[in-house]
Amino acid sequence: MCLRFRDDEPSQVSPEGPRRPHPSEVTAKQSINKRIQDMQNMKKEKRRLNKRFSRPSPVPERGLLWS
């Protein structure tokens, strides 16, 4: 948008300056941080599942099998 003054050249109200990134654009640092966070969550989940499935299943009582 240009504003006209008497004998001056037109001056821009919003001149072209350094472009601000669009909010959906992800920076490299954000991408790296997200990957690190995902890897940490995967390690936690793996540790939790290993604890859950490392216990042997209980041996059923002999009387229940041989009745």
Task: Provide the fold topology.
Layout: E1 2-3, E2 11-12, H1 28-54, H2 62-65
Antiparallel strand pairs: 1-2
What do you see in this structure?
With 67 residues, the protein is mainly alpha-helical. Helices cover 46% and strands 6% of the residues. It is built from 2 helices and 2 strands, in the order ββαα. It has helices at residues 28-54, 62-65, and strands at 2-3, 11-12. The chain has a two-stranded antiparallel sheet. Strand 1 and strand 2 form a beta hairpin. The longest helix has 27 residues, at 28-54. The N and C termini lie far apart (92 Å). The model has no long low-confidence stretch (mean pLDDT 76). Residues 44-54 have a biased composition (Basic residues). This is Coiled-coil domain containing 179. It comes from Oryctolagus cuniculus (Rabbit). Residues 1-67 are annotated as: Disordered.
The fraction of residues assigned to DSSP E strands is 5-15%
- Overall pLDDT: 76
Helical proportion, percent range: 40-55%
Gyration radius, rounded: 33 Å
Shape by Cα distribution: rod-shaped
User: Uncertain regions: pLDDT < 50 for 5+ in a row?
Assistant: none
Order of strands, widest sheet: 1-2
Largest sheet: 2 strands, antiparallel
What oligomeric state is this?
single chain
Region (Disordered): 1-67
Protein name: Coiled-coil domain containing 179
Biased composition (Basic residues): 44-54
